Give the backbone structure.
Amino acid sequence: QKRYMPAHDSTTIRDEPKKGPKVTVIIAKYYIGYGNSMYIRGENVGLSWDAGILMENVGNDVWVWATESTEGSEISFKLLINDEIWSAGNSIFALAGETTTVTPYF
């Protein structure tokens, strides 16, 4: 009886996961009415208190802003309707590299 040996080792070698930049995602859940847009202002990871960045409307009452960032940086931000009407209350804080969901009030 013949025995056949495999031509190569059958052990699977897996690549280590690729480490790309972390992504910071801010999700705002708020219905602002037809024709209006949600903006974000703040500091760190490309935000500014002087000019808002338009968030992407991905649902009837869901707005998203995402950016690549350095993990561990703290972000301070506020949301605005049409980059004019500021959300009420204090600034919101989040960690860069994470997803944060908020429900602002105006």
